[in-house]
Amino acid sequence: MFAIVEIAGKQYKVKKGDVVEVDKLSENKEGDKLKVEKVLVKFEGDKTEIGSPYLAGSYVDLVVKAHTCGEKQRFNKFKRRKRYVRTIGHRQEYTKVEVVGVK
Question: What is the pTM of this model?
Answer without folding.
Answer: 0.81
